[in-house]
Amino acid sequence: MDNRRGELMDTLRRARTALAAAAVRGDSWLLVWFAVYLMLMVEPYLIYQAQQPPFAMTREFAQPLLLGAGGLLRYLGLFLAQCDASSTLGALVRVCEALFIGLMTDRALAAAAGRRVPGLRFVPMALFMLLCGRYDQPLLAGPLLVATLGAVMLFLAGGRRLRVYLPLAMLFQVAAAGAAGPLSMWLALAALATLCACAAARATDRPGRAVAVFVVFLLVPPLVAMAASRCGLHAFAPSWTYAGPRSRFTGYLLIALLGFYPVAALLVTGLAEPLARCWQGLAERRAQRPPADAGRRRARPGELRLLGNVALVGLLSLLATRVTVDEAGGQRAYMDYCALHGQWRKLLAAASARPVAYDLATYDINRALFDQGLLARSMFAVPQRPDSLLLTVDTPYQLAARVRLADQYIDLGRLHLAEYVLHNTLVMGDNNPFLLSRLARVYLIDDRLPAARLYLTMLLDNLVWRRWARERLRQIEVDPSLNGDPEIQRLRSIRLTEDDLLFINRYADRPEQRAWYIDPEVLAGPLRCHPRHRMAFEYLVSYFLLAGRPNFAAAEMHRLRDFGETALPRAWAEGALVALDLPGPRPDLSGLAIDEATSRRYGRFKAVVAEYDNDLRAALPRLEREFAGTYFLYVAHARLGQ
């Protein structure tokens, strides 16, 4: 036992010496630059918001994981992923990961080939920097960090002590058995097996034993996973860690990063002697050069190396920013973050910076427009669809969509419907903190404090949400009625005074028409209970406009006088003009003024259509040029079935 403890202490001293040497060589510049690059350009907290991995410091959460094959690996990965809720901590975890990759590569090649290749340690760090900017392949820390850390400790011990650390490496393989399914994990395991095989071959001079080590390392994971399945323990595929690459470029980067170790080890092992001869020839040629002039000051090798490293990281940062950063993915993650936290002004600023396309983009933008008082004026400046205003109960299960649906019902005062959606999703959401926080909010608004305390107490076990939950619990203790919270009081004032368990979908014959059959009662009910419910009113009129029923929208516009308005906003005025031209009774606008410029624009629209003999399809290209961002163009597209 004392010998093994001494060997472990010796390994730690070697690691400390290697870290000090890395700082002296200038690698610290690369790591510092990498950390700053992550915090400013990649922002790991956005990756956390996009993935939302649940984690709790409770036995109930840990026990099902640890009993399954690969559970220890998953538990550690979920724990480290919580660091992505902070840009600083997330960047620190990734810097440590990159440092371990570089150290492992450097030491492994030395153990396998007997020599180090200058500059080769920068290659995995460069690949890691390029991969970190890809939002279609989120880097949640965990298995790769554990694998590289284990490999670093293994090879810092040296080939002669391989038999001491081989059982530890095998234990890691058993722990990773359930995670051996995805391609990326297979590459990581193959890399570790190859390096161990190379070190074993160099330590024992018996290639057969090295091949046996390699085969055993590759066969143990699936065999353990199969045995666990026979025992009723299901193997785990960590899609939260390295999901199948959705872009070819990201997949190539991932394979290059994880497959770099075996390729480098094998290449350097086979090319050690030619590289040594080439290096020796360069050294002899340098020695034969004439000495430099005495008056000429020569830079020291350390200074040249430092300048070279600074230039290298600058070039890598420029390349990563200009070529590999997934700007569209980053914008989606940022807008998702703003929507989940109610930062509507920032969301509109991001949407106006460049076009964005994701499933919930238009819904989020409409919600932000309402918050900023722009929905009735500028909603058609954004490409709209009939189903882009309201989410429905039968929204396909997607955690981000269900959280938004609950927020929508909370804002409309339909607390019971929000509670139904959250509980229905909680069964599938694995106690996700976003769902728990919304449930606590529902019960706080509905003045059901025992239920609110239950979910706030559950959030105390979450590393990211515990501060928010603790503040809420303290607020309940100090002010049980929550009279000092204006937002809670506002939401309490718009609660429905009638039963709000309403199924709001009416199915059409064709699925694509379902959004046109949303029951407007979901908006009319809150407006009937609270005539000054601004969101219910604006959403009701906007819903009728999007559904192609401007006459119904115009019939509701008279309520605008209840809010002190005397003129119709631009988008609503355009809808009212279309409604006035429809056959049937004219809607009563209660004297609300329509801007003269809007009236002239509608007259011009009808004149352009008349020039094409009322053929909307023929006139459409010209209409798109002259009437972009208007309800008139939206109606034209709707009538053409577009």
Structure summarized in a few sentences:
The chain is an all-alpha fold and 642 residues long.
Uncertain stretches: 235-245, 294-299, 504-516
The fraction of residues assigned to DSSP E strands is under 5%
Helix content: 55-70%
Helical segment tally? 32
Overall structural class, as computed from helix and strand content, comes to mainly alpha
Q: Rough shape?
A: elongated
Q: Give the total of domains.
A: 4
Largest sheet: none
If you compute it from the alpha carbons, what radius of gyration comes out, rounded to the nearest whole angstrom?
32 Å
Provide mean pLDDT, rounded.
75
For the termini, the CA-CA separation is 76 Å
> Could you give the count of β-strands?
0
